[in-house]
Amino acid sequence: MALLYFPHTTIHFPPIRISPPLFPAKTKSAAVSSLHFSTFFSENGVVWCRRATTPFRKYAYPDPIPEFAESETRKFRNGLLKRLSKEKETFGDDLSDVVEVCVQIFGNFLHKEYGGPGTLLVEPFTDMMVALKERDLPGAPLAARASLLWAQNYVDQDWEIWNSKSPK
């Protein structure tokens, strides 16, 4: 029988046979999966665990801010148009259509899902590429990549600036 030791608590588990995969997610004990361990060590085949001094804390991201989303969508449109304008041979007369598709998808993401640093996802950019390809617009990979690079360079930073100016 395995013995887990915690300060002030001892938990006994029946012996288990471990075979590949070593720790399948579905077989974890509910008691063990809800605990946070900081140290594991073995002594004569007995596994000892020390409980961490601080429990896990869930971080709740803030809700999207509509005013920020509007402002950032305008900046995104201008930045993307400036970047893709350098690729006239790729986009030709479809440049404004390509930009509008990207802006619509990114604006929806900012309004519904973006809640600050750590919440910038890749899905809107893959959605852009798929939407551009479905509409047979040129340069889908280039437009999606340029959009992603713009967002990585500006969105989180602009969020921090936006929130540092807002009254607390």
Automatic annotation (TrEMBL):
Which GO annotations describe the biological process of this protein? regulation of gene expression
For this protein, the record's InterPro entries field holds: PRIN2 (IPR039349)
**Protein name, as recorded:** Protein PLASTID REDOX INSENSITIVE 2
Which taxonomic lineage is given here?
Eukaryota, Viridiplantae, Streptophyta, Embryophyta, Tracheophyta
